[in-house]
User: Which sequence fits this backbone?
């Protein structure tokens, strides 16, 4: 049974086996969570991402997929990079967002990670409405078979924290 918990704060400080990065397809860094993870984790993360671009992901990591690297200097052992969909008012991309959570848990299982921290994927620069992003996140984690013991949603502000804790009730 996977235990779902919530924390308000910075995902890079979490003492878990794996933290999930809200990356972009290039895997070469960005702002938000991506920027914080690369800044905190150091150059080893970018080096590992570059190696992935030079091998399995020559064209970049597709939206909805997940791939793991070292976490460098961060307390976590691994970073699981996933690429969320950009919000669209005209196209329902919910399945791609759900896939980020499901594929990240699959990557965690492959690593043998037992505790995993997620940010609120796509709800920042990619513009996804927080309430809907929270609903998709909680529902997908609840319905995914995984060996992960704890999924911790790490929310950056009160709005996000409230949206997620309300999505679970
Ligand atoms: N810890 C936890 N949550 C954070 C942190 C942090 N250090 N920094 C930002 N957040 C929150 C944001 O407030 C938002 O709710 O994470 C959520 C996701 O925001 P983004 O990081 O902007 O990610 P996303 O919306 O998925 O956009 C991805 O942004 O940083 C670039 O390279 C990234 O192009 C990609 C895009």
Assistant:
């Amino acid at each position: 049974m996977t235990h779902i918990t919530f924390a308000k704060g910075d995902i890079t400080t979490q003492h878990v086996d794996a933290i999930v990065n809200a990356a972009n397809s290039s895997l070469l860094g960005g702002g938000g969570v991506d920027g914080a993870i690369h800044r905190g984790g150091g150059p080893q993360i970018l080096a590992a991402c570059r190696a992935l671009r030079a091998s399995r992901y020559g064209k970049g990591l597709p939206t909805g997929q997940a791939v793991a690297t070292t976490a460098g200097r961060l307390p976590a052992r691994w970073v699981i990079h996933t690429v969320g969909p950009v919000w669209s008012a005209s196209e329902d991309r919910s399945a791609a967002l759900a896939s980020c959570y499901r594929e990240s848990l699959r990557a965690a299982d492959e690593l043998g990670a037992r505790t995993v921290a997620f940010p609120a994927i796509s709800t920042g620069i990619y513009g996804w409405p927080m309430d809907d992003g929270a609903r998709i996140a909680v529902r997908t984690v609840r319905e995914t078979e995984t060996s992960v013991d704890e999924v911790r949603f790490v929310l950056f502000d009160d709005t996000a924290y409230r949206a997620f804790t309300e999505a679970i009730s």
User: Anything to note?
Assistant: The mean pLDDT is 98. Helices lie at 32-41, 43-53, 94-111, 130-143, 158-168. The longest helix spans residues 94-111. Residues 10-12, 22-24, 30-36, 84, 119-126, 154, 156, 160 surround adenosine-5-diphosphoribose (CB under 6 Å).
